[in-house]
Amino acid sequence: MRHRLLVFPLSVLLAAAPVQSAPDGAKIYQRCAACHLTTGKGVPGAFPPLQSDVRALAGMADGRRYLVLAVTRGLAGPITVEGKTYRGMMPAQGGLDDESIAAVLTHVTGTIAGGGKGVKAFTAAEVKAARESGATLDAAAVARLQPKLPAK
Asked: pLDDT per residue over 33-49, tens digit each?
């Protein structure tokens, strides 16, 4: 008795697979906007702006790691942003996977910070590596990692 091989068209197999869309960085940013505002301008003295310094950090390897750790581990203690000192606390943003963090950081650096297409997009692999490298850090330790930006 001969066995028949059933062949399904590729389109049928692909249609049956669940489609997952990439996380929407702008939508995820809504949780950040509660403090940093929809414009990313922040609140003077309370919540730092996410603009020129963030754009500059996105162009530096240690700056990109710092941005990921700020989101994943939080920040506590003094940081300097656009020449002003902030002494508050930013809690770690739990519940976001690596792809979601990459999406929101890409949105922040490209859109909110005004970097446009000139800013390299964050990747889930980059987020994972930074997250793993900083797994033992607390929010105060992350704040101390803030890279110095070149003088303007």
From this structure: 999 999 999 999 999 99
Measure the CA–CA gap between 6 and 3, rounded to whole angstroms: 9
Residue 112 near residue 53 (C-beta atoms within 8 A): no
| pTM summary value | 0.85
Please state, in angstroms and rounded to a whole number, the distance separating the CA atoms of residues 59 and 64: 7
Whole-number Å distance between alpha carbons of 114 and 70: 19
H helices of 1-151, where? Answer: 10-16, 25-36, 52-57, 61-73, 98-107, 124-133, 139-144
Please report the DSSP string for 78-122 in residue order: -EEETTEEE--EE---TT--HHHHHHHHHHIIIIISS-GGGSPPP
